[in-house]
Design a protein that fits this description.
Elements lengths: L8 H33 L2 H37 L3 H28 L1 H7 L7 H13 L1 H16 L4 H24 L4 H26 L14 H33 L3 H37 L4 H36 L3 H15 L2 H17 L3 H26 L2 H24 L16
Helix pairs in contact: 1-2, 1-7, 1-10, 1-11, 2-3, 2-5, 2-6, 2-9, 2-10, 3-5, 3-6, 4-5, 5-8, 6-8, 7-8, 9-14, 10-11, 10-12, 10-13, 11-12, 11-13, 12-15, 13-15, 14-15
Length: 449
């Protein structure tokens, strides 16, 4: 567990973020290997199926992601205030909520996958593979939710290194099982889904064994949990807006996929691969933003608001540098990167157009996410939710529809930075209003930032 309330702000945030960055780099590398294997050994229909599955997965688990973030903020603020009794109660409540949520996700995900795909207009040759992948994936919800919950709790306590170890092992296992199930056994897209479920289960059980031996405050003891209804309500107040925001984002992704689907399987496959590539840039920015949220939470809990502005500046400089580097790579080497995933030239050309257009504006996304992290760390998640809804549903989706009708599929790509620019503008306006400072769980007399 790491105290983020003492020491150089930028150095602390970098040290805290880097294990998350390394872990997610491994995760993204797995996603890349997964897509390469699928693209070369199964075909572009399977590649499109996996890409079409992600928004559905995101939609179903997004509310739980929000609740987990709510508990991370609660834990970080109480830990910063050194109220360990509340920390333990928050951890117990998190475990209970995520267990029942995973059961719900399994039921919904396995029951409604195919109808959702058909509703979005996914081509008939892609639907069976996409439906099979989703059903197998959601059978392992209890493992993925459990591991995500443990990681969120550890981040709230200032520990981002332990989840990294488990994630690296899980990722390597996933890659090896992918190659075994798809290349050796010829299980097709089902093999990719089985590999994911098995590796997540392994990470979850390994984490349980480790934590029960090394970190008593996080002991997983199924018969001794304490459910704190007050903390659950607080987590809803903080996490529900974020969860709803993620749900609307996921629903927006499905709506956008419906527009993309009109352009055929090659475009869907290209969209899937390009998303895999630009997720590296967004993932890094999101990791540093998550570190900043924990930093803000602990410093608000410790009544040190003067450190927040310095933390924001340091994080913004880091994420901006990362974004500019990835923009350069996307513009110069887009075709080369697409070629790793598929030999299909049509898919490569469509994906390159996406990377050149969207990749040029990564700095807008990273800046928006970084500033939003301050508000979330303070416990203010409602306004960021509304800003996301405006930038996605009022700007990006209508722009995608209109521009696609005017200039074709590249219009969908241009709508992405248009939405980011509006979201960033609104985020800066709200940050400078200072109203987010009053949302802390730990009330102090000093609130100057």
């Amino acid at each position: 567990m790491k105290d983020l309330t003492v020491g150089p702000e930028g150095k602390l945030i970098r040290q805290f973020a880097m294990p998350m960055v390394y872990g997610n780099m491994f995760q993204q590398l797995y996603n890349v290997v997964d897509s390469i294997v699928i693209g070369h050994y199964i075909g572009k229909e399977a590649l499109a199926a996996v890409g079409a599955s992600f928004p559905i997965i995101f939609l179903i688990i997004s509310l739980i992601i929000g609740l987990s973030m709510g508990f991370t903020i609660i834990i970080s603020q109480y830990y910063g205030a050194r109220n360990l009794e509340k920390v333990k109660q928050a951890i117990d409540t998190t475990y209970i909520i995520l267990f029942f949520a995973s059961i719900f996700a399994t039921i919904v995900g396995t029951s409604f996958s195919n109808p959702i795909f058909r509703l979005t207009g996914l081509p008939d040759e892609v639907v069976p593979q996409a439906g099979l992948y989703l059903k197998i994936y959601f059978l392992g919800s209890v493992f993925s939710f459990g591991f995500s919950g443990i990681s969120a709790i550890l981040r709230g306590l200032g520990d981002s290194k332990t989840p990294l170890i488990f994630l690296i092992v899980s990722t390597i296992t996933n890659v090896l099982l992918d190659l075994l199930f798809i290349v050796v056994f010829g299980l097709g897209i089902a093999g990719a889904a089985y590999a994911t479920v098995i590796s997540q289960a392994g990470a979850f059980f390994t984490a349980i064994i480790y934590l029960n031996k090394r970190l008593p405050i996080m002991n997983i003891r199924f018969r001794k949990y304490i459910f704190n209804i007050a903390l659950f309500r607080t987590s809803l107040r903080i996490g529900l807006p974020t969860g709803l925001q993620q749900m609307f984002v996921a629903a927006g992704m499905i709506a956008l996929l419906g527009i993309v689907n009109q352009f055929g399987t090659s475009t869907i496959a290209a969209y899937s691969v390009a998303n895999r590539i630009d997720s590296f840039a967004s993932m890094l920015s999101m990791n540093f933003a998550a570190a900043l949220s924990s930093f803000v939470g602990q410093n608000i809990g410790a009544n040190k608001p003067e450190r927040i502005k310095a933390g924001l500046k340091a994080t913004w400089l880091i994420t901006s540098g990362i974004s500019l580097l990835f923009s350069l790579l996307a513009i110069l080497f887009g075709k080369n990167m697409m070629g790793f995933f598929t030999p299909d030239q049509e898919v490569i050309n469509i994906g390159n157009d996406y990377l050149v257009i969207v990749g040029s504006f990564y700095i807008l996304f990273s800046s928006m996410f970084t500033v939003n992290a301050v508000m979330r760390g303070a416990g203010d998640t409602l306004i960021p939710m509304f800003i996301t809804l405006i930038s996605l549903w009022i700007i990006r989706i209508p722009a995608s529809y209109l521009l696609a009708g005017q200039i074709g599929v590249t219009g969908i790509w241009w709508a992405i930075p248009i939405g980011w620019s509006i979201g960033l503008s609104l985020t800066f306006i709200y940050y400078h209003s200072g109203k987010w400072r009053t949302k802390s769980l730990i009330k102090h007399t000093k609130h100057s930032v």
